[in-house]
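Recap quiz, item 2
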Amino acid sequence: MALITRLLLCAILLWPLLGQAATEVREFDNPVTEQRYRDLTATLRCPKCENQAIDDSESPIAGDMRERVYLQLQDGRSDKEILDFMVSRFGDYVLYNPRLEGRTLLLWGLPAGLVLLGALVVVLMVRARRRTSARDLSTEERARLDELINREKTE
Amino acid sequence: MKRRLLLMLPLVGFLVLGAFLYMGLSINPFDRDSALMAREFPAFELTTLEDPERTVDASLLEGEVTLVNVWGEWCPTCKQEMPQLLDLADGGVRLVGVDYKDTREKGREFLAEFGNPFEVNIFDPEGSLGFDLGVYGAPETFLVDREGIIRYHHTGYIRPEDVRETILPEVEKWR
């Protein structure tokens, strides 16, 4: 009985390690390439999954893509070449960081544009408010104000 | 009055954004176009499922409008799709299969059981041609014109109505 309990405990403790086996163990000549592998697999989106990077997905196609990234890094290809390779097959969908180009200008420009617009609105509002509060009343306005105050009093 | 209209501006902005995001909810993320559209069918050199001695390449697809269907014995939807493909073949459409990530025995068993609408099957056990085609699951179907250019792409199951409404008109268009 004690043996069974011990074995079970062992199995439970080892379980999380099994989960990690989905991502392969890779060997790299140097830490720079390893870091590039990590960055690339984290920024490439799995085409089969709706929102998962390939380093995080157990889908077979994600495994194939990791393999290609690894092989191409070993071949000495640049990050851009590897990303181009993937985009030419799976489309822009696989890029978590869309490229800055004609089609994506709106995508990249809109947030900055909205912040600028907001700043402009705030500046205009502050200015307008400052102008109205700083200005003295004209004679006409003063007369009207007096009239209003007096009316209140008489009512 | 003008001021009040101005105050409505954030609300209007919010509504526009809301409508935009709501529309995004109903978009099917798998409906996106293939990156290979209007490009040449990728180069390959693989054996056929039927004959391990026979090597074929992309010139196989030249000269006639061809539907290239990527399938595998492991893929349940491919089985459901076979009757539609058999109908297409009966109607005179040229079909070429890509047996994707499969073994020769299982691939052959599949065709023996569910019928074989294909003129020939390209055997792609490693999925290398599939990868170059940007295939991320099976079934996927590509229409290749007589110059070997990819003209239409269908991801997933081909329903009987898809045959009538999209596949056949596309085949006719490029013939």
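Helices of chain B lie at 2-25, 76-90, 104-114, 128-132, 160-174.
The mean pLDDT of chain B is 94.
End of item.
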